[in-house]
Amino acid sequence: MKDGRAYEEFVGRLHEALLRAEDITAQKNIQVERNKKLIDNCGVAREFDLYWEYELAGVTYKTVIECKDYKSTVSVEKIDALIGKVRDFPDIRALFATKRGYQSGAIQKARQNRIDLLIVREQNESDWTSLDGTPLIRTVCINMHIRAAARIKNFAPSIDGDWVKQNTNIDVSKALNMTGRTDEIVIEDAARGQKYSLHEMASRLSPKGDLDHGEFEELAEFEEAYLLYNGLRLKMRAFRLVYEIGKPHDQPIEIDLSKELVGVIEYLQRGAKTSIFKNGVIKTDDGEKR
After folding, report:
1. Per-block average pLDDT, block size 10, for the chain (290 residues)?
2. Class level of CATH domain 4-132+258-289
3. CA distance linking residue 85 with residue 79, whole number of Å
């Protein structure tokens, strides 16, 4: 037998993940304790590898797991030993966990004494094949086509000079200095009920024609629109916009699901299997849950 501490921790981590995934027990903040000592009905202290309890509707549910990292299958004597330990704990549910499996006599003895048998192990090839022999997806390949947002190179608004003369004291003979950031320059399209900054507009710009990158030009005319900048609000007839979009590139991403699979629990009596992944996903034979 190997040093059992690492195996106890492994089994404990998987069951903590299972408890967190259950709607009822997740709210109880259950702690899985190692090497827990309990006093039986005869006043004798008994130590169990793993233990947890929680209360539901006034009833306390207690569970213990004996964890044995044997190189061979578990014999009936080991099940007898667990039966003897829990005999004087009428309110405890007992489980036995190992990696290699159980001898037929051990399975029969456990069934007769309501001991649940588990095989708790790392993944193997069988975990990536369905019951009918169909291979399951182990690697996901994604090819991301990434295109950078447009960069505005030149913005030339056509301001309504008559409106400016009538509504402001700005000298229209002088050029309007617009050197701020694109998120500081705002277009208010009153006729369409829209308002957006140049920065927001740049995120919506796309290539034109058959090209997927390069320099492009955008022309827009307005029925009633205003340019908002640096505290000013000026009526604008149109604008000419020159923008550039960089060459897109492909970014392949490969996700190896086998690296995400922490461990597997096989429930021998029920013929069921549960897989526990790093991201909290719990995959069962009949579906998937968190």
Report:
1. 81 92 74 93 94 89 95 95 94 95 96 96 88 83 88 92 89 66 89 94 91 93 93 93 93 90 93 90 73
2. alpha beta
3. 10
